UniProtKB/TrEMBL annotation:
Residues 2-116 form the CoA-binding domain. It comes from the Bacteria. Pfam families: CoA_binding_2 (PF13380). This is CoA-binding protein. It comes from Fulvivirga sediminis.
Amino acid sequence: MKKTAIIGATTNTSRYAYAAAERLTSHGHEIVPIGIKKGEVQGEEILNLREKPKVEGLDTVTMYIGPQNQPEWYDYILSLEPKRIIFNPGTENEEFEKLAKDKGVQTERACTLVMLSVGNY
């Protein structure tokens, strides 16, 4: 299974990031929720994005913060050394995608929820 960081994790049950946490765990993937608000999701504490927590053994980063809020986190997210970054609808960012690809990180413009539902996560 793929250890996945959810950037923009939230306890708000109406948000897609919350649904992604639920769906990822129900499919057996380990999640690392990272966000700016405290709380927990699917039994995992939301790590404080501002503290730039170190995460080892990451496969995937799935983005749930808009492109206007991403630049200050580029270096941090790339320092996690993910194999891929999924840019969910509304998070697409050509600049960040190029930076990631230059570091050898696969990028996908896709929906984590759809990928899980069709079995190509």
